[in-house]
Design a protein that fits this description.
32% strand; 102 residues; alpha+beta; 4 strands
């Protein structure tokens, strides 16, 4: 099953704003049933600020729906200046090996 991984970065001065928005957005967009959240949120400090990622496991046929959900969720942060994000899809090793005939 593929993983949809969402990364976000923001200055430490925005930590409370981002945390509050996250809680509000989770109320507005509860996790959909096709997503199994493997890592709810992992936070690390960097030289530039805070980096957060979360990992969702989905069935291959649900990748589009999961990307749609992640996109809608993160659009809620657009008005927070300095907040950046990226959404990526990763295949498991078994899936990747199948692509090369292994």
């Amino acid at each position: 099953m593929p993983y949809v991984i969402s990364f976000s970065w923001y200055p430490p001065s925005l930590a409370n704003t981002v945390a509050q928005r996250y809680l509000e957005t989770l109320q507005k967009y509860p996790l959909i049933s096709s997503i199994k959240r493997v890592v709810p949120a992992a936070v690390s400090s960097t030289k530039e600020g805070l980096e957060v990622f979360l990992v969702d496991e989905v069935k291959q046929e649900d990748v589009g729906e999961a990307l749609d959900y992640a996109g809608k969720f993160l659009v809620e942060f657009f008005d927070i200046e300095g907040f950046r994000y990226q959404i990526k899809v990763y295949n498991t090793l078994n899936e990747a090996m199948r692509y090369i005939g292994k």
